[in-house]
Amino acid sequence: MAKPLSCPLLSVCPLRCMVDERFDVRVQGLLPGVRVTLHAQLQSEDGDYWEGFGHYVSDDSGTVTVSKDASLGGSYKGVEFMGLLWSMKPIPGSRTGLRFRKKDVYTPMDVHISVYKDHLNDGFREKPPVASVLAQRWYTAPGIQRVNVTEKGLKATLYIPTGPGPFPAVLDLWGGGGGLVEYRSALLASRGYVALALEYIGRVDAAGKPYQVNNEYFEAAYTVLKQHPQVCPDRIAILGLSFGVSVTLGMAAYSSVIKPQCVVCVSGSHILPVNGSLADVFAEIKKNVQNTRYDEEKRIIWRDLLLPIPDDPSKKVEMGRIKCPILLIVGEDDQNWPAMESAEDMKQMMERAGNSHLLSVLSYPGTGHLIEPPYSPHCRASNFMLEETRKKVVVLWGGQTEPHCHAQEDSWHKTLAFLEQHLYRNTSH
Q1: How far is Cα 418 from Cα 429, in angstroms, rounded to an integer?
Q2: Of 74, 165, 177, 324, which cross-links 230 as Cys (Cβ 3.0–4.6 Å)?
């Protein structure tokens, strides 16, 4: 028979914080040796519910402390400070292929944290919790300014920190999903950087016809950022994910306009013809479309579309031309891009060219393609809209939940340290 609960007190500290900050969850006032389930739930802006939960037993003082005590089961196991959040999955019965992404960065993620009697795996909505708390997690610190940018034909959003400035800046490039993705830029601005989120895939002209942007588009974005009165013009970084890595490395190597102080490349590749453009990367992928694979659940695996890494140097960014520090972030279970093979080839190219001292590589086992800010739910596969056919497919991104989420936390803090080192502390290479 389950031991009775006395009058438990559930606390979350801090109750209100940034999404890249930890919180401490604690239950006090239990009897010793009582089995409880801690449950976290949030509702996405699309109306879908996500949940994570852990099974705990109170200690001799009748307390459960998530940062110190092991979860014995649930959606995560072991001593996991933020397991309630990163282990979240859509609740049973949800739509398939979901990926959690924040759209309105000026509203918080409301996380409902509750304590239930005994060790539960389901039926949370049917059972009353013995205590509940609402925690708020934010992508924007108070006072962050958001500005739409349309000059020079751009479709972009600028996030500006509070304070007199000028500030270092980051050009923020997402990947093949297209659209204007802003939550990482909002978070960077909250950490002291002017950040420009740029839409560059899936652009349509005035007649609604899709078109591919060229290199001048990225140079225009960099110029707008550089000329902004709140930006230190000699302290600009580029942060690229997936296709954004191809752009970042190509621009750093060949552009006479773009001269970043440092670059961060997440889950991408240097396969891009010498002085080529994004259109060339798409062309290479289309040429190898027969290399598309599917897993046992018919989810698309695209990593082979850029393999094998070409020996022909004219088909790769000349890494020896890059004169600024590079941070490569690699998921070793990336099923979407050959990030690990590309990183190894880039390292060899830079060793031969004599500039490998500029390269730092973070390579994470069990980690997939979508390396997000910390404590974000791991997305192993999700729905994806093919740009040309507008057909919806399910893409396998890869990664195992626990190592992937630890990699998200580690790589984010190392990215912030890298940016601080090269944009705040260093004024020259």
Answers
A1: 13
A2: 165
Pull the structure tokens for residue 59: 């200690």
Active site residue: 71, 242, 376, 411, which one?
Answer: 242
Active site residue 429: no
Identify whether 402 is part of a domain. yes
Overall number of domains in the chain: 2
Annotated catalytic residue 118: no
Q: Please report, for the domain that includes residue 419, its CATH number.
A: 3.40.50.1820
44-71: buried (b, 16+ CB within 10 Å) or exposed (e) per residue? beeeebbbbbbbbbbeeebbbbbeebeb
Mean pLDDT (10-residue bins), the chain, 429 residues: 68 97 97 97 95 98 97 97 97 92 95 97 94 97 96 95 94 89 97 96 76 89 97 97 95 96 97 85 84 92 93 95 97 97 98 97 98 96 79 92 98 98 72
The DSSP annotation for 30-46 comes to PPTT-EEEEEEEEE-TT
Task: Determine the structural domain holding residue 89 and report its residue range.
Answer: 9-138
User: Which residue, of 138, 156, 182, is where some domain finishes?
Assistant: 138
